[in-house]
Amino acid sequence: MQRLAPYLQVAPLTLILGVFLVVPVTMIVLVSFWSYDEFDIYPDLILDNYQWILTSPVTWSLYLKTLYYALVTWAITLLIGFTISWYLVFHVKNLIWQIGLFLLCTVPFWTSNVIRMISWIPFLGREGIFNQALMGAGLTGEPLEFLLFSDFAVILAYVHLFTLFMIVPIFNSMARIDPTLIEAAVDGGARPWQVVFEVVLPLCKTGIALGSIFVIALVMGDFVVVRTMSGGQSATVASAMMNEIALLQYPTAAAGATILLVVVTLMVAAILRVVDVRRELAG
Amino acid sequence: MASNRDSNGGKTGAAQGSGGLTRRRLLQTSAATAGAAVGSGLVTGFPTVWSQKLKDVTLLHVGSSYSAIIDIARQASQDLGFKIEMQSVNGDALVNRVVTQPSTVDIADLEYWAVRKVWPRGVLQGIETAKIGRWDKISPLFTQGKYPDGREVTLEGTAPYEVQYTEEKEGNRFAAGPTDHATLLPQIYNADTLGIRPDLIGRPIESWSELLNPDFAGKVALVDIPSIGIMDVAMALEAKGEMTYADKGNMTKEEIDKTIAALIDLKRQGHFRAFWNSFDQSVNLMASGEVMIQSMWSPAVTAVRTRGIDCQYVALKEGYRAWAAGLGLMRHLDGLKLEAAYEYMNWYLSGWQGAFIARQGYYTPVLETTKAAMAPDEWGYWYMGEKAEEPVKDPYGNVMEKAGAVRDGGSYEQRMGNIACWNTVMDENVYMVRKWNEFISA
């Protein structure tokens, strides 16, 4: 019984990971080697699906676009996440206020993703509120068209949707910083920017790493936001998979998914290589 | 329509406890309306036990949002005495569901281009035309591939007639001409064209070529359903004289390459404002003034107009891009459920549904029952292209046009009699969609 206990303890997690992670991922990888015709898919072991994806210029331009979105969104959410956390942790002294303001950050997330995204459309449109306000104030004569159905709109929506995923882990790790450490740094003659970059930032590495993983993984896998906010003018890697599924070409979509999985895993691995999250968390 | 009212009465009677009798009366009524010769088979073929149990049957009808409308299911359940449930799933997801999870669907409500993909997969069973009382009343567009006046209908794209019949009940091939088994029971169809904002454009639009006119740069939208979007563009390119196609509905790789190259050029010049893939997106693009000319569906035009914004579904000289949808029987249906499904299909052609969808601008395969189920003034507006004497109402009774309005494009014969191509999937579909993706990511 004594020897069984650890196995029993680990069983639920193993079961969940097995059923919801290992089995589906294995299936996807398996199917990616299958062949298909217009009407069915057949068990097989072919590399055509990968060959087609890897040699298609569309794939490369989609990856470039997706990475562009991911990096820009990452940089902006990081900046916002870091500054908001900074404010909450170091400027708001009262704990009640701190928690209250933190919860306030989450309020927009009580509404659905779709609503938060779609509500930008009437706001940014050619005859939208923002353009009318600009023209009303005499700042522009013509409505600004880049506001909607553009990369700007896509990134705006990503930032709006995903910033919280950056705020939470950064806030969490920043809140653990002992304030006396900063006093010590200042007393030791550190300039304000040195406090930020040489004291606080390194101590927030874990939070930043976790937030980055969330944001990058979310953007890399998205196809809904990009569709809606670009007005169908842009596509991401996942959009291509959607199109293939629509054509009942599951093997190609599975190959695309496998490649994306590898790419995202590599990105996460790179992040984890820079920051040893496990050690930092334990510490 | 009278027979429907009778069967409503029958339903009430059943609730009071004389189930068997009213059930039989209902069957007789529907059989009588279904036409004596074939319809009689429905009645005699039914063991009494079945007819009693029929009311326990539930049929799941899965279709697109514009055709699987819950009001139709409600009315059918009321008239037929058994339960019809409806689910709406759009576009490719619908085809996916029917093909990969056939047992989760009883009645598949598909467009004809989809049946071209779905039928060979062996998930549907042939509909015995002998069991469809009004089969011979169905528009010859479906049953013979001809206009009512005898002219041949274009076969560009997937003309319903090409995939209407099948050799055998459970086969996977199509038949070249009429047989005893149909793939789908025709139920709605329409002629699509471009939607415009006449107030913003300020001049008449008469040709598909206007879709690509640089005057409208940055104010044009296209439907992002590759198989349909490319046809709209092909209509425009052909009208401009820049391309000629042997069959717009079945382009060669070379034709696809040239068309997509032209599209990428236009996209780089900022010609398109957006690409939409759902009904509401197309409505919002038009209503908000983001675009002034775009691919559009008839009810979307109506939706823009009900907001008080001028929107026109223009008749273009090159003709319309037509589409049609029908009901398919899933292969797993048998026994009582199958009989119920046939009853349901016969109900579809009995008038109520035809009148309902006519009010959102769609046509029905059996004109006479629909005509009987509509007020003469409504029939005049929707089908005859006549001036409406009274305000025109949508299916839900909301006023959508003032008295005196005339339908864009005119009568059924003018609109449905000028088909340039049909919605389709091409033989080179896979290649085409890949090229389309290039265009979208360009």
TrEMBL record, chain A:
Keyword terms, alphabetized: Cell membrane, Membrane, Transmembrane, Transmembrane helix, Transport
Membrane topology category: Multi-pass membrane protein
PROSITE patterns tied to this protein: ABC_TM1
Lineage top rank: taxon: Bacteria
ABC transmembrane type-1 domain span: 63-272
UniProt KW Transmembrane helix keyword: yes
GO CC, alphabetical: plasma membrane
Family membership noted in the UniProt record: Belongs to the binding-protein-dependent transport system permease family. CysTW subfamily.
Name of this chain's protein: ABC transporter permease
Organism whose genome encodes this protein: Marinimicrococcus flavescens
Species lineage: Bacteria, Pseudomonadati, Pseudomonadota, Alphaproteobacteria, Geminicoccales
TrEMBL record, chain B:
Pfam family membership, one: SBP_bac_8
Cytoplasm recorded as keyword: no
Keyword Signal: yes
Keywords from the UniProt entry: Signal
Superkingdom of origin: Bacteria
Matches recorded under InterPro entries: SBP, TAT_signal, TAT_signal_bac_arc
PANTHER family named in the record: SPERMIDINE/PUTRESCINE-BINDING PERIPLASMIC PROTEIN, SPERMIDINE_PUTRESCINE-BINDING PERIPLASMIC PROTEIN
Name of the protein in its database record: Extracellular solute-binding protein
